[in-house]
Amino acid sequence: MKNLFKLFCFALLTAGAFAQDENTGKQDEVKMKPALLVIDIQNEYLPYMSEDEKKFAMLVINGAIWFFRENNLPIIRVYHSDLNWGPKEGTESFEYPKSVIIQESDTKIHKHYPSAFIETDLDKVLKEKGCNTLFLCGLSATGCVLATYFGAMEHGYKPFMIRDGIMSHNSDYTNMIKDVCESLSFETMTIMLQY
After folding, report:
1. Residue 79 CA, distance from chain mean position
2. What predicted TM-score, i.e. pTM, was given to this entire model?
3. Which of 18, 33, 47, 147 makes an SS bond possible with 27, Cβ 3.0 to 4.6 Å?
């Protein structure tokens, strides 16, 4: 029964993955081309996140990075700093914790606004990689992850939040974002990307 439910969820999630040809009226399947966006899990911001969410979210984020790497799928690491107060690139507070399994070869985007699409090369990078579907994790669910989620939709991508891979300063707010936006469990994400 559990496997049947997973297949049902997969069918629902991919039901919209068809495009209609304007000339023939026929529907063509649009192959999902995913990328993982790891957003702002920097030393500067992690202390402000809910302790109830942080530990598990960081495990899920590492799991997502591992899964994307194992499947040769793009991983994009996003860093945030305010132009006036930082953190400054090159400092320890700007970096991700050493426990995060990100690699230097993973594309890096440095942003100054909540959405990773504003005044960055993110859209260009995603188009060069041929991506059309984005899986978002990181922080804050109520800030930069949410802004990037809507920015992705505005740029024509299909975004999903990884349910347990997002966090904010308040677990109740994070749960609200999970309910309002399209969010998937880690398990559902891996099932989707295996087909």
Report:
1. 13
2. 0.85
3. 18
